[in-house]
Design brief:
Elements (H helix, E strand, L loop, with lengths): L9 H7 L1 E4 L4 H10 L7 H12 L2 H11 L4 E10 L6 E2 L4 H4 L3 E7 L4 E5 L9 E3 L5 E3 L1 H4 L4 E4 L8 E6 L3 E6 L1 E9 H4 L5 E4 L2 H21 L3 E2 L2 E4 L9
Parallel strand pairs: 2-13, 12-14
Antiparallel strand pairs: 1-9, 2-11, 3-7, 4-9, 4-11, 5-8, 5-10, 6-7
């Protein structure tokens, strides 16, 4: 079911870099994904994407505010495991870099993630990490207030939206991560591969048609970045 935008604090997303979206459907949806060994690039996985992200009007509205007139493209989708001794970010550059990416963390019950508020507004020291992310200097990050998703243990799971420049720390469990970027970034990344089946082709066509309707009715500009092939995709988590 689509969520309303009531109570959505977009100003906090822009200023602090992160907001949380309560969602009672998340725990059941994640539990089902676990039971299917995180098969993202399947019919069931695409249903998860639609129900947990695209159908959530709060995310759509946040993406509209965040990206403005630019296209918002789902460029990547992966499960990231805990690395409690590392502070990481998807993009770097601080204010000069601008709004490059909006990240959605779908969190399982019992997860704990620290988000370092306002770190996205500063050009911090980074180095390339071991799983396609940047690692931040822990001493620098210590200067920013950590907001923790899961402090009380997420009883029903939940979702967090944050600026791609924001530093975060996956302390416990994992995150199912959706990375929405500008079109310029998305076109420079490999497309996500789906098995070439008629069922998946039609499902993507239906999702793209729905997104076009949303663009016309809500002014959002979200696009997908999939391709089809004969080879099944590899690992969905690191």
């Amino acid at each position: 079911m689509a969520s309303t935008t009531v109570g959505l604090n977009v100003e906090a997303l822009l200023e602090n870099g992160v907001i949380e979206l309560a969602d009672p459907t998340t725990e059941g949806a994640v539990t089902e994904m676990v039971s299917k060994n995180f098969e993202f690039f399947t019919e069931r996985g695409l249903d998860f994407l639609k129900q947990q992200v695209l159908d959530d009007s709060r995310f759509r509205y946040a993406s509209k505010v965040f990206f403005g007139t630019e296209k918002c493209v789902l460029a990547h989708w992966l499960r990231y495991g805990s690395r409690p001794n590392f502070m990481e970010c998807h993009f770097k550059g601080g204010l000069k870099a601008g709004h490059l990416a909006l990240i959605v963390h779908v969190l399982p019950k019992g997860s704990q993630v620290n988000y370092y508020q306002r770190s996205h507004l500063h050009e911090l020291s980074t180095k390339e990490g071991g799983r396609g992310l940047y690692e931040n200097d822990a001493l620098e990050i210590a200067g920013f207030e950590a907001w923790t998703a899961g402090d009380q243990k997420l009883t029903e799971g939940g979702k967090v939206i944050f600026d791609g420049r924001l530093s975060f720390q996956i302390v416990q469990m994992y995150t199912i991560t959706f990375i929405f970027t500008t079109e310029a970034i998305a076109t420079s990344w490999p497309k996500m591969a789906l098995p070439n089946s008629a069922t998946l082709v039609h499902k993507i066509m239906d999702m793209e048609s729905l997104l076009q309707d949303m663009a016309a009715n809500e002014g959002v500009n979200i696009r997908l970045n999939f391709t089809f092939g004969e080879i099944l995709p590899g690992n969905t988590g690191i």
